[in-house]
Amino acid sequence: MRWSALENEACSVARTVSVIGDRWTLLILRDCFLRVRRFEDFQERLGITRPILASRLRKLVKDFVLAKVPYQERPTRYEYRLTQKGRDLYPVIMAIVHWGDIHMAGKKGRPLLHQHLACGKTFDPVMVCSGCGEPLDPRQVHVHRGPGAASPRNLPADEKKRPRLVHQR
Amino acid sequence: MRWSALENEACSVARTVSVIGDRWTLLILRDCFLRVRRFEDFQERLGITRPILASRLRKLVKDFVLAKVPYQERPTRYEYRLTQKGRDLYPVIMAIVHWGDIHMAGKKGRPLLHQHLACGKTFDPVMVCSGCGEPLDPRQVHVHRGPGAASPRNLPADEKKRPRLVHQR
DNA sequence: ACAGTGAGTTTGTTTTCAAAACCTGTCAAA
DNA sequence: TTTGACAGGTTTTGAAAACAAACTCACTGT
C-alpha cells in the first residue's frame, strides 16, 4: 500500500496516520508544542537532515497542520506555527508523552514535567469519556458502524462471522 | 539519527516513537483494539505485505506491547494479544481516531462510533488534566525539566536564551 | 571585502521497504 | 496416495526513502 493510499481509507486512524504517521513528523510536532518554530531550530534540536526536515514541513503545511508565516522581510524569513488543526493534535502528543513516561522512562525518571496553569498542578493527561467523564478502559468500549463506514473489511473482528476452529482456547 | 538511536533519547516522545512511530505499527494496533489477533486476519484487513507484518509483530512482541500466545497445537498456532503495556496505548489510538474523525472524515461522516459500556453513551475521547479534570489546552500548559532531563538541547525553546532578531513580529 | 545567518537544494551513497514467490507442518478430501 | 488447503511465516530482488556532506541564494553586519 502506498503512503498516499491511506488518505482514502474509510478509517480515521489510517487518515490520521497519512498525516502524522512518520517518526520525524511526530518529533517535529513535539517540538512545535515546545514553541520551536524555525527551520534551523528544528534541525539543530532534532538532528534531522535538512532535506527531510524541509519535506516534512512542506507536507505539514500542505495538510494545514502548520502555517508558514513570515517573521521578517529582506530577506523574507518564515516560521512554522501550529494551526488550530495542529493544536488539536495536542491529545495525540500528550498521550504519546504519557505512555513514554510510564513505560519507557529511564532510571532517572521522566524528562519533562507538565504544569497546568489553570489549576497550578503538575499533572498527567487522562483520557476520559465525554459522556460521563470516567477514564476510558478499552474493554468498556464497544464499536459500531458509523455513517462513513465502507466495506466489511474494516469492521471489528467480532462482527465478521468467521468459522472458528475447534481447538481454540 | 538512526531508528534505534531514538530509544536512548531523553525524551518520552522519542522513546515512544521508537516503538510505535511507524504507520503500519499504528494500524496494527488499531486492529488489536478491534479484537484482531491472528496473522492472516491482520494481513487481510490491512493489505500489508507478509514480511512487513511479520517484522512489525516481532518488534511489538520484543517490546512487550503484544504477547504471542498459542491457541492450538499440532500444528502450533499463535495469536497476538495486547499486554497491559499495549492496552495502555489506548489513549494514543483514541486520540488519533478522534483527530481523524474531526479533521479527516469524509462527507459521509465518521466510520466508527464508540459506545462507553459504563454509561451507555456514544462518546468522544477527551484529554483532561489529572489534577483538576478540565480539558487540556496546550496554551495552558507549561513545561519544566524533570529528573530525567538530559542536555539543554531537549529543553523547550523559550528556555534557551537565543539572540532574537530585531525585525521579528 | 569578508564572515555569518536562515532557509533551503543538490548529489551520491546506504538503508529500508515492498511485491511476489517460496517454504513448512498439519489435516482432509478424491 | 497424490492433491489441495490453511496458517504462519521466510527469501529474493527491485524500488523508494533516508543519510551525510556540500552547495546555493539572498541578504546583513563589521
Question: Can you characterise this structure?
Answer:
The structure is a homodimer of 169-residue chains. Chain A is an alpha+beta fold and 169 residues long. Chain A is 35% helix and 17% strand. Chain A has 6 helices and 5 strands. Chain A has helices spanning 12-20, 23-33, 39-46, 50-62, 84-87, 90-103, and strands at residues 66-72, 77-82, 112-116, 125-129, 141-145. Chain A has a two-stranded antiparallel ribbon with strand order 1-2. In chain A, β1 (66-72) and β2 form a beta hairpin. Chain A is globular and about 55 Å long. Mean pLDDT of chain A is 86; it is low at 153-169. β4 of chain A pairs antiparallel with β4 of chain B, so a sheet runs across the interface. The structure holds a DNA duplex (30 and 30 nucleotides).
Record keyword descriptors for this entry.
homodimer; 169 residues; alpha+beta; Arc Repressor Mutant, subunit A; two-stranded antiparallel ribbon; 6 helices; 5 strands; 35% helix; globular; disordered C terminus; DNA-binding
Count of helical segments of chain A?
Answer: 6
Largest sheet of chain A, described in full?
Answer: 2 strands, antiparallel
Rg of chain A (CA only): 20 Å
CATH class group of the domain at 3-111 in chain A: Mainly Alpha
Biggest sheet strand line-up of chain A: 1-2
The number of E-state strands of chain A comes to 5
Specify the CATH architecture of the domain at 3-111 in chain A: Orthogonal Bundle
Q: What assembly state would you assign to the polypeptide chains in this entry?
A: homodimer
| Poorly predicted sequence stretches spanning 5 or more consecutive residues of chain A | 153-169
Order of helices and strands of chain A: HHHHEEHHEEE
Secondary-structure class of chain A: alpha+beta
CATH domain fold name of the domain at 3-111 in chain A: Arc Repressor Mutant, subunit A
